[in-house]
Amino acid sequence: MNMSVENAGQILWVLGIVAWYVIRFPFERRARRTRVVVNRRSLTDRIGLGAALAGMAVVPGIYVATGFPKAGDHAASAWGVALGAFLFFAGVWLFRRTHKELGKNWSISLEIREKHKLISGGPYSLIRHPMYTSFFMLALGQALLLANWIVGLAGLAGFATLFFLRVDKEERMMTDTFGEEYRQYMDRTKRIIPYIY
């Protein structure tokens, strides 16, 4: 049986999403055991997380499972799937690195945990929010792996909603917690793209 380029892109997307979940699951379990001392969860935080989940998991998952919505379908290209796979799996790799660096400091929401430390090593030495960078790479990869304009834009819209609703609040929370140490860290790093932004 010959596998089409479109099917290859869908299979790679599914494998990447499974890898993403396998990486996240143990950190979610461990995070529940570390006491939260500052909780800045809000409605906008939930909206951002919901938009990211919808755009980067639910909408593409429905598309891969059912082919809906067909209206946005376009021809898949081998180079697009290859580039999409590279971006997607590089994003998965960065996602894993950020979790390993954060360890017990990791949280799905805007929270400071007991004995929280400012992490500035690994990917955090160049950018303050490498997890958002990984989401951006996943969204770009999704747009190339799945041959549907609507599904591709859903991932980018989900990422953008999460990022723009949360990043300023997250940086305020970190400044409130770490003060001058975080301000100096901000001076020597970029937000999500090394040396650029």
From TrEMBL:
InterPro entries xref list: ICMT_MeTrfase, Isoprenylcys_mtase
One of the record's GO cellular component terms: membrane
GO biological process terms, semicolon-separated: methylation
Lipid bilayer topology: Multi-pass membrane protein
Compartment annotation: Membrane
Residues of the signal peptide: none
Residue ranges of coiled coil: none
Database matches in Pfam families: ICMT
Lineage of the organism: Bacteria, Pseudomonadati, Pseudomonadota, Alphaproteobacteria, Hyphomicrobiales
Keywords: Membrane, Methyltransferase, Transferase, Transmembrane, Transmembrane helix
Transmembrane segments: 12-27, 47-65, 77-95, 135-165
Taxonomic source organism: Rhizobium subbaraonis
Protein name: Protein-S-isoprenylcysteine O-methyltransferase Ste14
